[in-house]
Amino acid sequence: xxxEGYIKYRSHWSPGPAPNAAxxxxxxxxxxxxxxxxxxxxxxxxxIGFGNISIRCGEPGxxxxxxxxxxxxxxxxxxxxxxxxxxxxxxxEVSCAGPLQASSEAMTxxxxxxxDSSINAIVHVHDKSLWDRYLxxxxxxxxxxxxxxxxMAQEFRRLYEETAFRSxxxxxxxxxxxxxxxxxxxxxxxxxxxxxxxxxxxx
Length: 203
Description:
Oligomer: single chain
Strand content: 25-35%
CATH class: Alpha Beta
Number of strands: 11
Shape: globular
Strand order of the largest sheet: 1-7-6-5-4-8-11-10-9
Number of helices: 6
């Protein structure tokens, strides 16, 4: 079975009403072109979604992120997002609230937001051609580290401190085939960094 889309942290989900509608509209504004480009979507054979997007939202340390298994959704709204309210990387735990549980990549997003207060948005996409082209050319996480784990969280700290990830704002996930991730001071910056790569993509 494809190792994708499964929550690997301990999830403490508080089902409730849809979170911040204005923030969700901003997420949809930039999720839509990523979806159209095939960077967010679903593996039809396995019915498993891929790709997620988040922005800082709510109290300090909180963020609004795509709900789990929403990759297939063509047009998203506030019902497709989850507010991460607390997390503990060392204990591999994430607490979230809203109509859906947070994405399986919520732990990685949390760790990246911890790196720098100037990081306000994160985009994680899948594309095999981009992954093949930029693996070990752009900043790349170690191949033996899986997505959604505390180890991946720490790996992004290493990239941020030791490589050009801080300035370039984009990385390839070596142990998560097809996965790329970008950061930005704004959602527009994070999304356009990824979309710019598709200009050289081989479809």
